[in-house]
Amino acid sequence: MALKKGNDFTDEDKQAVKEAQTGIVPNIYLLRARLYFDGGNYAAALAELAGAPAGSFNRLQDQLEYTYRLARIFDKKGQKTKALHYYGQTYENGSSTTYYFAANAALLSAIIYEEQKQNKEAIEWYKKCLALRNHEYQNSIDQKAEAGLNRLNAK
Question: What is the pTM of this model?
Answer without folding.
Answer: 0.88
